[in-house]
TrEMBL record:
PANTHER family hit by this protein: ACETYL-COA C-ACETYLTRANSFERASE, NON-SPECIFIC LIPID-TRANSFER PROTEIN-LIKE 2
InterPro entries per the UniProt record, alphabetical: Thiolase, Thiolase-like, Thiolase_C_2, Thiolase_N
GO molecular function: acetyl-CoA C-acyltransferase activity
Source superkingdom: Bacteria
Limits of the Thiolase C-terminal domain: 254-388
Name of this chain's protein: Acetyl-CoA acetyltransferase
All copies of domain Thiolase N-terminal, residue ranges: 6-227
Pfam families xrefs: Thiolase_C_1 (PF22691), Thiolase_N (PF00108)
Amino acid sequence: MTEACIVGWAHSPFGRLEDAPDLETLMARVARAAIEDAGIAPEEIDGGFVGVFGEGFTPQGFPASLVLQSVPELRFKPITRFENACATGSAAIHGARDFLASGRGRFALVVGAEKMTATPGPKVGDILLTASYRKTEQDIEGGFAGVFGRIAEAYFQRHGDQSDALAAIAAKNHRNGVDNPWAQMRKDLGYEFCRTESEKNPYVARPLKRTDCSLVSDGAAALVMTDAETAKAMNKAVRFRAAVQVNDFLPIAARDIVRFEGAREAWSRAYAQAGVGVSDLSFVETHDCFTIAELIEYEAMGLAPEGQGARAALEGWTAAGGRLPVNRSGGLKSKGHPIGATGVSMHVLTAMQLTGEAGAMQLPKADIGGVFNMGGAAVANYVSILERAR
């Protein structure tokens, strides 16, 4: 496949955005800005790839051409909507990579967006549950949080109570989120608050408390991609050394759910494709929809042996100054999780680290970055390995 590079990007604030009433408003905040950041004219974009979750957060069920509301220069260009649960943004990125590899265009625009906070809480829970297997998981108490509560219970039964590690992950990500200007929650909650059940931190789906769960968010992110040859003439470029998608069974009962086998396979293939290992990574942005997910993902990426992911959290391996910083952005836990925007956001923030544009989030060493974005409970698994090209 022709090597693809990210050459421009934009990111909106994440959170309860009262001044952004709909998807097209959110898209308008990032689409043209990403094109301008790439230093090209809107007319040079050859195709658009839009990521929006498909199960009811907006009554507008045909969102691809909403980008034209803010970038009318894209009229008559091919624009396609992508959807793959919480990995929707990464699905759109893969669509753009395929488009470039086919030679159908030179520049591709990827936009991920979601407007979630206008939807009533109970309805949000029902919509998110569509990312699980309704035939057998429909009645799990707590909705999608309940699904991950069951995963946490199963992990605890096999490997012991890891509540301390989950609190450490939550505290780390909230601490990191303070430095992210786009994060929904820029507050260092501290370990004790995250570890302790309280009126402000109740159980949502045992053993998961509120601080173990990502936030309901509005937001958008966008990036511009091109082929490696064109990228040589750009002001900046971040290349994909690997981009892998692996899907697993949808029902959690059909697999050993505490192992995230699809994530393991995706990481394994990405390392082989990139010619690197976990020790070569400078940092990772990983999908912490719930803290138990981040814990298991440490093991899936090879940072810790199976059943020992807690060590990475409790011994500071994944802290900003640790041997492999994870979610320096604050992750979904602190940054927020507007479904369609999440995968695009993760790639934007990784590109910013690699080009030294991450501001207060910037790590002293940022040579190779890993991204893991998943849809459902480790069903659609996407891994990217990125490095600076110029």
